[in-house]
Amino acid sequence: MTTPPPGPAGSSRPAGTNLAGLRDHNAALVLGLLRAAPRGGSRVELATRTGLTPQAIGKITARLLAEGMIVEAGQEASTGGKPRTLLRLRAEAACAVGVHLERDELTVLLVDLAGRHRYLHTQPVDRAVTPAEAVRLITAQIGRATAGLPAGARLLGAGVGCRGPLDHAAGVLHWFTPPGARDLAGWDRYPLRDELAARLDGLPVVVDKDTNTAALAEAPAVPRPGGGLAYIHLAAGLGAGLLLDGALHRGTRTNAGEFGHQTVQIDGPPCDCGNHGCLEVLCLAELRRGDHAAAARLVGVGVANLVRLLDIDRVVLGGRAVLSAPDVYLAGVTAQIEARIPDPDWQPVPVSVSSAGRLAVAAGAAELVLGPLFRRRT
Ligand SMILES: [Zn+2]
User: Fold this and answer.
1) Distance between CA 140 and CA 143 in Å, rounded?
2) Residues less than 5 Å from ion ligand 1, measured at CB
């Protein structure tokens, strides 16, 4: 995961460095600022906001112009001094593919540098699909997506968001198969990243949990130092993606964010994970009854726990269940936070519904590939 360095104390400004050997780090800062400013920015503005010298900004922007990553885009309105040339990100210079692999649906999205969607395809998938067949379907759709790449555009890679558990670093799935669940046969320990890369002629592939990629889709272009964002996903399961201090928090084994498996009812009903009284099993029972208000109340209790544990200061709700009744979840979760946080006026936690909606996982999967261009690699 990538993140910009913390800015100067008390500032949200990303701090650049003028040390030699960190050109990519500084170029990422410049590209990140231009990505967040669709109208563009002047070299003087970039120097001010990164803390880099005008000379360093001159060298970086000259290189990015030569590489076709940015373009000159007219002049800034004069405020009395010499007019300043605006620089803008060249969105069509490169693209990435975002894939959302669900048990019953496949979505493939082509995204350019500015985050614009240039190709979108969603198709149903048989729940008993084999890993090899899924890889074939994904490969075929990526082929169609990239056939429409703008002339000269580079394809940087493909990101895949799917349910966990999985090992992000190794790109291997750990889909435990309960006895008798034949439709999951072959998925446990499946090396999805390497199998896809082999079919895509070595294209870089990144695999991550759907909750993590969806959280990335909600990340600001220039993350706030110290910010804590929780993306809560309620669909066939309940999970969370955590963006802490601007970076995804995956944990050592990509097992962070198992929000649905916090025990909230000791000796409660059994959960698929082997535990009892998990938040997820209680929530899914309410969904089966069609009671979204009760499910929202339970999600809200879990979110309040999370806020108190990690000082989360922004909550985004997503997933099929939430999107089917967004107002109910907004109200239910907000009410629980306000009831359970000791001083909500001092510790406000705004709650919103995912702006990317059904495409959050796929858009964030593309961001797995695009993000490192714009932020410092950590
Ligand atoms: Zn559980």
Assistant:
1) 5
2) 261, 271, 273, 275, 278
